[in-house]
Amino acid sequence: MSVFRCILALAFTTTLASGQSTVNAVPCSNASWARPLEVYHPSGVTDRYVTAALDVSAGTYDVLYTLLTDGSQANVPAFDVLDAVGINPIDNVTYASLKMTCDGVADQNYIVRVAPGNIRFVGTASYDITGEHKAGTFDSAGNYYLGQTYMPRAMYKYTGLATLPDFANCNDAGVVAITGVSVGTTSLAPGDVVAFSRSGQTNIIGLNSAGTIAWLINTGVAATAAAQLAITYTSLPVRVCTASCSFGAGWNFNERLFFAADNGDGVYELTGINTTANTALMTRVGSTTATANTDGMNCHTTPVPAFPLLPTSAPTSAPTSAPTGAPTAAPTGAPTGTPTSAPTTAPTTGTPSASPTTAPTTAPTSTPTTGAPTAPAAVTTAPTPPAPVTTATASSSGFPAWASVLISLMVLGCLAFCVLAYGTFAQGRKEGDGVAVVSGGVVVSAPTMGDEDEILQAL
Fold first, then answer.
1. Is 449 part of a structural domain of the chain?
2. Other C-beta atoms lying within 10 Å of the C-beta of residue 267
3. Does the pLDDT at position 66 exceed 50?
4. Nearest 5°: CA angle at 277, between 271 and 281?
5. Which are the contacts of 56, defined by CB distance < 8 A and separation ≥ 6?
6. 418 and 280 share a domain?
7. Structural domain includes residue 156
8. CA gap 142, 86 in Å, rounded
9. Each residue's pLDDT tens digit, 170-182
């Protein structure tokens, strides 16, 4: 055995008198264990079970210890199946259902305590069962729930396991039947089950082999048939079951429920449980690696793991590799913890000037650049009438006024000349012929009595 496994065995196991527990608590405060834990067969291997912790960032498993099924390990009997694992919150010890042959009788099922390099027998189930207990879990009060693989697929509740002694051999006289109470039945065979609190009652939930139906048992109602909830996948791409689709590992972290697919499809969070509409939602939050005959467990004090696709409770310092499934719980625009650029050692602008600069300054001046503000001018109560505007007016004929005046003067001059000429003509007729008439500066001979029309035409 390696030094690492020896240290783990010493951390878990203390030799005490027969009839007392010799398996110590899981080191839940250790970061290596405070993660989603799984017990499974390694790929292509059936002669061992490994207990491993899921690396949520990489989707791979870190092996913590290995149990061989052939009986070659000290303190580990030969067995067939190890399943229905869970960590009891009362003593933080791992419990499981072990199927094996004891004293030549095959298919015996025992409730056992498990640790690195050690399996101890607590008792047998009090009911007749065919096959193994495939699914098991603990609630927050330390009650252990075991589900049958085959019909009637009842779910049984066992109390007070932390107070019972354990034994090294299956045929020890102290290994007696432990009485369980049926809390419900389901027609679906779950890969794993998880206990959680809902409306003040403990509920047990698991998924069918295709991951399309979740069945729910309310333990507050004795021996009831499980409600069947239709699953809707909310993340893309939508999960399509092809092979080995069972969700064999389930976890409850602070009343948030998660299941991992055996075929490596990933880890999904189960939310939106609605027993009126019989529906629930599944959202992919992380990656996994394919496993076989797997079962999940976790310390009840472990916080919700930081699955890569799970919305963070505070802003992240860098963008995530893929879109998040829901908005963050706090704004992402919070100020940075340190300045984004180093401050300068001296002002970036010169000494402020007393007069305005020709271009806008990048920082305010140390003293005002303008004098004190002037008092506002008094406001008149009545508006000042507008000054008259002189504009050239047009006559009704469309000519300017000055042109009309000029034409009028010319007409009056002509009329005056005509009157003067006619008067002279009339005077000449009285005085006789030979009166000269001037027209346009030309002397016209004295008119005769028959020449009035000609004179007028000449004018």
1. yes
2. 27
3. yes
4. 20
5. 35, 36, 267, 286, 305, 306, 307, 308
6. no
7. yes
8. 10
9. 999 999 999 888 8
pTM as predicted: 0.65
Domain annotation covers residue 313? no
Same domain for 293 and 406, yes or no, is no
Of residues 19 and 326, the one with the higher pLDDT is: 326
Asked whether the beta carbons of 184 and 205 are under 8 A apart, the reply is no
User: Which residues are within 8 A (CB) of 454 and not within 5 positions of it... i.e. 6 or more apart?
Assistant: 447
Q: 48-55 and 60-68: which strand pairing?
A: antiparallel
Please determine, for residue 201, whether its predicted confidence score (pLDDT) is greater than 60.
yes
**Residues 57, 170 within the same domain:** yes
**What is d(CA 439, CA 427) in angstroms, rounded to the nearest whole number?**
16
Output Rg (C-alpha) for the chain, integer angstroms.
55
In a domain, 344, yes or no: no
- For residue 70, give the CATH number of its domain: 2.120.10
State whether 409 and 292 are in the same domain.
no
Asked if pLDDT for residue 390 goes beyond 60, the answer is no
- DSSP secondary structure letter of residue 375: P
**Strand locations in 263-404 (E):** 267-274, 279-286, 292-297
Per-residue confidence band for 221, with pLDDT thresholds at 50, 70 and 90: confident
- Number of domains observed in the structure of the chain: 2
Distance CA 91, CA 117 (A): 19
| Domain final residue, candidates 297, 325, 351 | 297
Residues paired with residue 198 on neighbouring β-strands, in sequence order? 201
CB 89 within 8 A of CB 110: no
**What is the domain extent for residue 422?**
402-458
47 close to 69: Cβ distance less than 8 angstroms: yes
Please, what is the average pLDDT of the chain? 78
Last residue of a domain, one of 297, 331, 362: 297
